[in-house]
Amino acid sequence: MSTARTALETEEHQALRAAVAALGKRYGRDYMTTVIREGNHTDELWAEAAKLGYLGVNLPEEYGGGGGGMAELSIVLEELGAAGSPLLMMIVSPAICGTVIARFGTEDQKRKWLPGLADGSLTMAFGITEPDAGSNSHRITTTARRDGDDWLLTGRKVFVSGVDIADATLIVGRTEDARSGKLKPCLFIVPRDAPGFGRNQIDMELHAPEKQFELVLDDVRLPADALVGDEDAGLLQLFAGLNPERIMTAAFGIGMGRFALSRAVEYARTRQVWKAPIGSHQAIAHPLATVHIDLELSRLMMQKAARLYDEGDDIGAGEAANMAKYAAGEACVKAVDQAVHTLGGNGLTREYGLASLITASRVARIAPVSREMILNYVSHHSLGLPKSY
Q: DSSP class of residue 386?
């Protein structure tokens, strides 16, 4: 498929795309489905991507990273997704946790975590969603209270990806403001073996190498240096991680959509029912062309969001990242649906690797924030309309 995307990218970005695409091609969808079927993790791909410097491309050079930003990291995830083998933990470990620690962590925290996050030897999960909070982060009830020089963390989290393979989880909790008495968000690094830190795997219909967990924190005792950054800068630090999360979720959706579209186009070029390949018929060709347009438009907004974020414009990046995530989620679902429809019965076979994406494609619509909440954000912040809640 032809594309104009390279015209807007530097030679370095084009080279990165080509190199990651080559890596993805060596693994591909068959590798991913085998890993899922056997209940394993994508250790081989993760290790090779790390060795090539792709996992830490956004992290500071002085801590072993590539010195790039979200523009580069989103390219990596998109191209792996387009090859059929996306690494979901890239969204969590280097993008969210790595970014937060790089921007707000102490020097000790940076030295302890960033080199490992960059070379893939360490992995971090991220816990924000709660059973009774959902998209309303103001209702988070996980609280941290001081006990001498330590913190005691208590609460529950749900839909936390990859806790079983993570060395630690960055937990969003709330502490009491001594001046106002109000609760404010703060982030804590919780080691996987911390006493009182329990996890239960959630039984999901979604089939992926990365499992989902419910976390229970029962007076988990943490040292003072488990707190990331300034206790009074919680919201700033939180959104410093959420914007990259949205950008990377957009990359995840775009990559998956591109994979599905490529399978459909290949099939439509060769599948012949009457006298010509089915792709010659507008009823097949036009919906696929529409999907391609939607994916390209989504990428443009993702690139805008990444650039704004990398330039330090958190407010501008917030709007663009939400829009990119929304657009990519919609485009991904449409791409997978149209690809399956193009293949007909073959689209539901294991051989073509599309049927499992029917469920997986919904992730970009639902997580990390629903499309309805993004529409709320745009209507309030971009259009200045009043809130209903």
A: P
Question: pTM score, two decimals?
Answer: 0.94
Question: 13 exposed, middle or buried (CB, 10 Å; 0-12, 13-18, 19+)?
Answer: middle
Per the listing, tokens 């962590």 go with: 105
| Spatial separation of the C-alpha atoms in residues 103 and 185, rounded to whole Å | 17
Tokens in use for 198?
Answer: 């329990």
Instruction: Quickly count: other Cβ atoms within 10 Å of residue 384's Cβ.
Output: 7
Q: Which residues contact 49 (CB under 8 A, 6 or more apart)?
A: 20, 23, 55, 76, 80, 87, 120
| Distance from C-alpha of 257 to C-alpha of 280, rounded to nearest angstrom | 21
Distance CA 192, CA 262 (A): 40
Q: What is the pLDDT along the chain (389 residues), one digit of tens a residue?
A: 444 455 689 999 999 999 999 999 999 999 999 999 999 999 999 999 999 999 999 999 999 999 999 999 999 999 999 999 999 999 999 999 999 999 999 999 999 999 999 999 999 999 999 988 766 666 789 999 999 999 999 999 999 999 999 999 999 998 875 555 566 788 999 999 999 999 999 999 998 999 999 999 999 999 999 999 777 666 677 777 899 999 999 999 999 999 999 999 999 999 998 889 999 999 999 999 999 999 999 999 999 999 999 999 999 999 999 999 999 999 999 999 999 999 999 999 999 999 999 999 999 999 999 999 999 999 999 999 999 87
Gap between the Cα atoms of 235 and 243, Å rounded = 12
Beta-bridge mates of residue 220:
153
Strand partners, 187: 172
Joined tokens for residue 341:
């429809």
Residues in the chain: 389
Residue with tokens 């005691």, as numbered in its chain: 152
Whether the ω angle into residue 368 lies within 30 degrees of 0, i.e. cis, is yes
Copy the structure tokens of residue 227.
């707190």
- Alpha-carbon distance of 7 to 17, in angstroms, equals 13
Q: Rounded to an integer, what distance in angstroms lies between the CA atom of residue 282 and that of residue 141?
A: 53
The string of DSSP codes covering 43-84 is: HHHHHHHHHTT-TTTTS-GGGTS-S--HHHHHHHHHHHHHTT
Question: Exposed, middle or buried, 22 (CB in 10 Å: 0-12/13-18/19+)?
Answer: exposed
